[in-house]
Design a protein that fits this description.
Elements: H1 2-26, H2 30-45, E1 51-54, E2 60-65, E3 109-110, E4 122-126, H3 130-134, E5 166-178, E6 180-186, E7 199-207, E8 215-223, H4 225-228, E9 234-240, E10 249-250, E11 258-259, E12 270-271, E13 282-289, E14 296-300, E15 304-309, E16 321-331, E17 358-366, E18 372-373, E19 379-382, E20 389-395, E21 399-405
Antiparallel strand pairs: 1-2, 2-4, 3-12, 5-16, 5-19, 6-13, 6-17, 7-8, 7-16, 8-9, 9-10, 11-15, 13-14, 14-15, 17-18, 17-21, 20-21
């Protein structure tokens, strides 16, 4: 009998220990829970590297085997055969590129190239650090844009001017079916007032309404202290199929974009940068829909086909885009109730022109026959032209172009 009592007691102790352990688990502090979540997320996003390269700007670039990249975490891509090249390039892609000699821009590299390159059959991925995630509002929101950050030229209500805290200076086309877009974008390093603000210059490929179902593919350059932890100008991409709510992300920070190129890292620093009244540098970006496979491809410069967004990621863009936008965007957090002094483009207004103001040149769209052509009926849009402005133009060398940007806060933009 005594033995049974003893066993019973032992059982009670064991049960108490289990309860105690579960209590301890339930009592994990907010910091401990966050650390656990951080650790899991870092493990998921940072894939095993064949080789790692330390960039002069502090980044670590991991060379990850092409078949182990984040895209393949997507359930629909488990048995995906990587398309190593597009079936078709747009017609006319290599016909232009004739730039006036006095305005000839120099080719671009990325800063990490100074310390090495990734081997064949790998892709370069900027390593995510713990601090990168800690700067985000939550682990879940890391690498995502805020909802309602898209420029909508046709619905400006003055009362809602800064509702989303985002301001734009863009050129756009709509009213047709578009199968891609191209631009050569002047590269600068705009000053950012608050670390939670950013400044970017990009193109948008848009499908659907500006409601909850908006599809968007985006690429360009950005300065974003929150996302990267510094003020460097970086190459970036973005995608969403539900207006920035649950789907999509920057660069390769979630599954979606499939990269095939071993030379160019999404989110890595662009080098060199334009200087005021001095050397000017620009980058060319082309995004187009492969008419055979239906995937949306991205090319950087004339030499680097970077990869593609599979068509199944999208609803409207599975067919075509209904609007293309090119231009600048900043976050205006209105600290102290005043307009931000975060710069767009070079931080100078369009009328100052070449060498002073930032530009997009040779902007083009891809039509249903997979031809690159000049856009028709280009409109322009800015919420507050006294803060950031845009001016369209057209000539033989630059085709359809525009200057854009501004300083933000000034005597006319309080």
């Amino acid at each position: 009998m005594a033995a049974h009592v003893c066993v019973g007691r032992r059982l009670v102790w064991l049960l108490a220990a289990v309860v105690c352990l579960s209590c301890a688990d339930g009592r994990l502090s907010g910091v401990e829970k966050q650390n656990l979540e951080l650790h899991r997320h870092l493990k998921r996003v940072n894939k095993a590297a064949v080789k790692s390269i330390q960039s002069p700007d502090g980044d670590i670039i991991d060379c990850v085997h092409v078949s182990h990249q984040p895209a393949f975490d997507h359930p629909f891509l488990k048995n995906h055969t990587i398309q190593m090249r597009p079936a078709f390039h747009p017609e006319g892609l290599f016909d232009e590129n004739k730039v006036a000699s006095e305005k000839k821009s120099k080719p671009h590299v990325q800063l990490w190239h100074q310390n090495g390159r990734c081997p064949e059959n790998t892709i370069p991925i900027r390593r995510t650090k713990k601090d990168d995630i800690l700067r985000a509002s939550s682990v879940k929101r890391y690498g995502k844009k805020k909802h309602k950050s898209i420029p909508h030229p046709l619905s400006i209500d003055p009362d809602l001017l800064n509702e989303s805290g985002h301001q734009h200076a863009i050129a756009y086309v709509e009213g047709d079916k578009y199968y891609g877009a191209k631009a050569t974008i002047n590269v600068w390093e705009p000053k950012i007032q608050q670390s939670n603000e950013f400044s970017l210059s990009q193109l948008w490929i848009l499908g659907g309404s500006f409601g909850e179902d908006l599809n968007s593919i985006e690429a360009g350059w950005q300065v974003s202290p929150d996302l990267y932890g510094d003020n460097n100008t970086r190459l970036f991409t973005y995608w969403t199929s539900d207006a920035y709510q649950a789907t999509g992300c920057y660069n390769l920070l979630c599954s979606g974009f499939i990269q095939i190129n071993s030379e160019v890292a999404m989110g890595a620093s662009i080098y060199p940068i334009s200087n005021f009244q001095s050397s000017q540098y620009d980058i060319s970006i082309l995004i187009w829909k492969d008419p055979k496979e239906g995937n949306w491809w991205m090319q950087f410069g004339n030499d680097y086909v970077l990869g593609y967004w599979p068509a199944f990621l999208f609803s409207y863009l599975a067919d075509s885009a209904s609007m293309i936008e090119w231009g600048g965007e900043v976050v205006n957090s209105e600290a102290d109730g005043e307009h931000t002094s975060t710069q767009m483009g070079s931080g100078h207004f369009p009328e100052e022109g070449f060498g002073k103001a930032s530009y997009f040149r040779n902007i083009q769209v891809v039509d249903e026959s997979n031809n690159l052509k000049a856009p028709k009926g280009v409109g322009s849009f800015t919420e507050q032209s006294n803060c950031y402005d845009v001016q369209n133009g057209n000539n033989g060398d630059w085709g359809t172009y525009f200057y854009y940007g501004g300083p933000g806060k000034n005597s006319n933009c309080p």
